[in-house]
């Protein structure tokens, strides 16, 4: 995504992905490869090392599920 949403000065909707395993990682990678900014994506996973590896690889934010959905415009459940 480039340019954001009309009237949105922050760069577009924020996406929270709950579940950072294979399915969640595929969704996040697809978003980033499509031009979505990593700064607009936050992920949560019950297995902290999985989420941290994704953060290190893609530069996304990682939080608990409860924290990830706060302020998100879109929530993807990938569990």
- Large-scale geometry: globular
The percent of residues in helical segments reads 25-40%
Residue ranges: pLDDT <50 for 5 or more in a row? 1-9
Q: Note the quaternary state here.
A: single chain
Main-sheet strand order equals: 3-2-1-4
As a whole number of angstroms, the C-alpha radius of gyration is 12 Å
Number of alpha- plus pi-helical segments? 3
The arrangement of helices and strands along the chain is: EHEHEHE
Q: In angstroms, what separates the terminal alpha carbons?
A: 24 Å
Mean pLDDT score, rounded? 88
Into which percentage range does the β-strand content fall?
15-25%
The helix-and-strand class reads alpha/beta
Number of strands: 4
The biggest sheet, with number of strands, parallel, antiparallel or mixed sense and barrel status, is: 4 strands, parallel
Task: Characterize the structure shown.
With 79 residues, the chain is α/β, with parallel strands linked by helices. It contains 3 helices and 4 strands, in the order E-H-E-H-E-H-E. The protein has helices spanning 22-33, 48-58, 65-69; strands spanning 15-18, 41-44, 61-62, 74-77. Strands 3-2-1-4 form a 4-stranded parallel sheet. Helix 1 (22-33) links the parallel strand 1 and strand 2 (41-44). The longest helix has 12 residues, at 22-33. The protein is globular, with a radius of gyration of 12 Å. It starts with 14 loop residues before the first strand and ends with a strand. 27% of the residues are buried. Residues 1-9 have low confidence and may be disordered.
